[in-house]
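Design a sequence for this backbone.
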């Protein structure tokens, strides 16, 4: 009788306890969860319902209060907020997956070999390739059209340099684009040698060629987005800031997301031409659970690798060349003034110290008296000492740490010793701005966010060079770096209340690793790969 009474009491206790539990979609237990909240605290479990975090705490606390048919044992693994790439070219990367890949080539001969293989495989009527970089070659000089003309005399060829600010084309493409030695170049360069175009175009004149490239079909556009999305999830990226999109692609992304075909979160920067500005200032900010359209992307100058970045003084390795602004100062100011009068954010590409001076002065002038605008300088690569103070006034530096470790081999030749002191100065920018947003600029660099983390912390490339780190005074701590890839990036997008940290009420976007990013040996960081990636509580990898 005593046994029966004890059994009934225990049964009632368990039944009551079960009735008091809240049923949720998913519970994660027995993990180390870096919440990246204000105290940078950790937890071991969290409960997720309808895509959002409803509780986070110890495994005992969560399992006492919640129950789920989908309870996942974290097995001691390490969980971080879903990673955010604060500056990339997501759609362009997807397109590049449909085109010839020239990254890592060491010579023009190797480029020709890859293009021949691409032609045999795809049989295109117009060859487009991406990713060459003459700085990786034994002879670090721009190629010419000569080799392309021999290999491809009857089909147009357009090859984008790795930074997207220079192209090499063959004679067929030059002819179709109507480019001759007499074609005027404003905001860039058409290289001429022996009275003829060499095939190299830098910055604005590239548009003459881009106009003749056949537009991708809708089928190719969709394949580009979905192929790129898979790569993002494989690397633990749950939000990407696409730096320069046209309305047509933004609309396509929205349609695919609403149809549940595409799931990735996108922070879209609209290409800041007058037509797009007029359209979106009239439409206003557009936001869904997956898409945020509230910013414009403006270009101040070109890139350092192609000597298109606009400098106060000539390039150290090419006296007389300063680079160039891609538009006159009044035109840049006009765009900024229009956007300042709206609720939209402006994010401007500025690499050279002169371009940064111009854009920062414009920002200060047009934002006078306006609070919490969070306008960004994209890249902020080379600055004068006196210009760092502009970042005290709410301007956010959005930088790409792997640029430092890619460029370190040749940047000193371009800039000279004095200017290098204030180049890739991420710690100094953080100290002035209070936050820093981190990205990759892929496909200029690799997608892998662990390369970003490693470059920011160790200031070394993937081969762990240089031994002591590159300009280590500007290295970031691991905590600062993780914040730059999560909560600070979210803040820079006005999205800090919904993502960027693992807290109650925020989306359950997170990535799981089997090693601790905050403690693992520095030279092992680049080898880390996510075990799984979750977007709004759903496993996507």
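Sequence:
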């Amino acid at each position: 009788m005593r046994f029966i009474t004890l059994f009934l009491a225990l049964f009632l206790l368990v039944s009551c306890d079960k009735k008091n539990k809240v049923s949720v979609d998913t519970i994660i237990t027995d993990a180390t969860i870096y919440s990246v909240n204000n105290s940078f605290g950790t937890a071991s479990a969290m409960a997720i319902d309808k895509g959002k975090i409803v509780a986070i705490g110890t495994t005992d606390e969560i399992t006492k209060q919640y129950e789920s048919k989908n309870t996942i044992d974290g097995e001691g693994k390490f969980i971080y907020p879903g990673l955010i790439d604060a500056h990339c070219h997501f759609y362009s990367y997807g397109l590049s997956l449909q085109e010839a890949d020239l990254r890592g080539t060491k010579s023009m001969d190797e480029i020709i070999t890859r293009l021949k293989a691409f032609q045999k495989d795809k049989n295109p009527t117009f060859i487009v390739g991406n990713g060459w970089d003459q700085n990786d070659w034994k002879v670090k000089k721009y190629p010419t059209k000569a080799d392309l003309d021999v290999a491809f005399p009857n089909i147009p060829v357009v090859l984008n340099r790795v930074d997207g600010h220079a192209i090499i084309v063959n004679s067929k493409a030059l002819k179709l684009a109507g480019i001759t030695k007499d074609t005027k170049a404003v905001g860039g360069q058409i290289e001429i040698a022996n009275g003829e175009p060499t095939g190299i175009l830098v910055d604005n004149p590239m548009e003459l060629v881009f106009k003749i490239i056949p537009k991708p079909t809708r089928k190719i556009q969709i394949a580009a987005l979905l192929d790129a999305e898979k790569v993002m999830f494989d690397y633990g990226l749950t939000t990407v800031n696409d730096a320069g999109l046209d309305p047509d692609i933004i609309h396509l992304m929205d349609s695919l997301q609403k149809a549940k075909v595409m799931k990735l979160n996108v922070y879209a920067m609209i290409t800041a031409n007058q037509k797009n500005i007029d359209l979106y200032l009239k439409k206003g900010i557009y936001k869904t659970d997956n898409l945020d359209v509230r910013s414009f992307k403006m270009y101040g100058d070109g890139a350092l690798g192609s000597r298109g970045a606009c400098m106060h003084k000539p390039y150290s390795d090419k006296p007389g060349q300063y680079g160039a602004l891609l538009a006159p100062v009044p035109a840049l100011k006009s765009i900024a003034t229009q956007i300042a009068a709206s609720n939209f954010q402006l994010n401007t590409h500025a690499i050279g110290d002169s371009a940064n001076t111009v854009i920062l002065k414009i920002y200060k002038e047009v934002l006078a008296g306006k609070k919490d605008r969070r306008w960004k300088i994209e890249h902020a690569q080379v600055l004068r000492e006196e210009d760092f103070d502009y970042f005290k006034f709410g301007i956010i530096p959005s930088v790409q740490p792997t640029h430092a470790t890619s460029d370190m081999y040749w940047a000193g030749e371009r800039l000279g010793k004095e200017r290098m002191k204030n180049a890739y100065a991420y710690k100094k920018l953080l100290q002035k701005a209070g936050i820093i947003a981190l990205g990759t600029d892929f496909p200029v660099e690799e997608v892998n966010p662990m390369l970003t983390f490693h470059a920011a912390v160790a200031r070394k490339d993937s081969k762990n060079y240089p031994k002591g780190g590159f300009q280590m005074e500007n290295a970031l701590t691991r905590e600062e770096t993780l914040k730059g890839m999560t909560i600070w990036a979210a803040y820079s997008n006005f999205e800090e209340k919904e993502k960027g940290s693992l807290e109650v009420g925020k989306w359950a976007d997170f990535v799981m690793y089997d090693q601790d990013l905050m403690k693992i040996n520095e030279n092992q960081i680049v080898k880390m790969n996510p075990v799984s990636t979750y977007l709004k509580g759903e496993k996507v990898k």
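Residues 15-76 form a domain with the Urease, subunit C; domain 1 fold (CATH 2.30.40.10).
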